[in-house]
Amino acid sequence: MRYMGSKARHAKHITPIILEGHNESHWYIEPFLGGGNMFSCVDVALKWGNDTSYYAVSLLEALSKGWSVPTFLSEDEYNLIKEHPEGYDPALVGFAAYCCSYAGKFWGGYWRASNSKSEPRNCASEQSRNLEKQRSGLIGSKFTVGSYLDMDIPVGSTVYCDPPYAGTTGYQSCFDSQEFWDWCECLVDNGCRVFVSEYEAPECWTCVWEKPVTNSLTKDTGSKKGTEKLFTTVRVGRKNRVGNGNGPAGQLEFNSESYTLVPVVHDMTYASRDDSDEIPF
Ligand SMILES: C[S@@+](CC[C@H](N)C(=O)[O-])C[C@H]1O[C@@H](n2cnc3c(N)ncnc32)[C@H](O)[C@@H]1O
User: Which residue puts its alpha carbon closest to atom 5 of ligand 1?
Assistant: First the structure.
């Protein structure tokens, strides 16, 4: 699904890392579901997605329950829905607000694009096909709307967090990153396996995957290069892949018997423009 900050292009790299050691009788949880672009790629029995965005969650939940996705949305319809969202199915509002908007930004302006012959593209139809690809990965999941702080996360869950990045603009409200990291550390103390996508993390978190990317958070700020990273303090029952202090460069070393960490994967292929957040999914 077209969504600002989508992890669609990274999902195939980071899901195997996150799921290594996941206990199938426990929950896989995403407190920052967004467009569900990671979530729908995770193949486990118990999945819970949450977000503060009522319309994004409504769209994904409706999709999971068989909602028919529109294959066309005119600019007039887009503007009508934007002016009176209360008069429409929240799933349709979500479709218009995110999937039919520039860069997947909430009501970021009607998305107009042309093909190589300068003919207008039917962006709604393209997005409809993308949503169809996500549908099977959403069926049977639990969905909630609200702050991550209000989630009652069961002990032993695998929690993947993709919060608004510290210091970035574009989201509706400001996000307290320190409060977020404190909350993550409480989850770890409560026996959860926690993974976080961020550019930086507090010292006790370890980067286990990284890839340079070109992001475009808003059409005003233009593109920006950065390095996507996945951090964790994974705690699992068995001991594997723990280095002895003499491992090859890039191999993660860790001393505690109670922790197992996967080796950091440096994927140094620079994302092309087509691979950027401007064209998620
Ligand atoms: C980077 S996006 C997630 C993108 C998602 N991983 C994907 O691939 O589509 C971050 C999300 O965090 C949500 N968010 C921001 N503050 C939140 C909060 N306090 N609690 C829960 N979700 C929040 C935003 O609405 C946004 O959808």
Answer: 34
Angle of CA points 128, 134, 137, to nearest 5°:
155
Distance 280 CA to ligand 1 centre (A): 15
Give the Å distance between the CA of 45 and the centre of ligand 1: 22
Amino acid in the structure at residue 44: V
| Ligand 1 center–CA 33 separation, angstroms | 6
**Among candidates 116, 61, 51, 55, which has minimal Cα distance to 81?**
55
Q: Which long-range contacts (CB under 8 A, 24 or more apart) does 119-122 make?
A: 122/71, 122/72
Over the chain (281 residues), the average pLDDT of each successive run of 10 is 92 96 97 98 98 98 97 96 98 97 92 86 92 97 98 98 78 81 97 96 95 66 77 61 34 36 51 36 41
Reported pTM: 0.84
Q: Delineate the domains of the chain, giving CATH numbers in brackets.
A: 11-199 (3.40.50)
**Which residues does ligand 1 sit against, CB inside 6 Å?**
3, 5-7, 31-32, 34-38, 51-53, 56, 147-148, 162-164, 171, 175
Instruction: Count Cβ atoms below 10 Å from residue 140 Cβ, excluding itself.
Output: 11
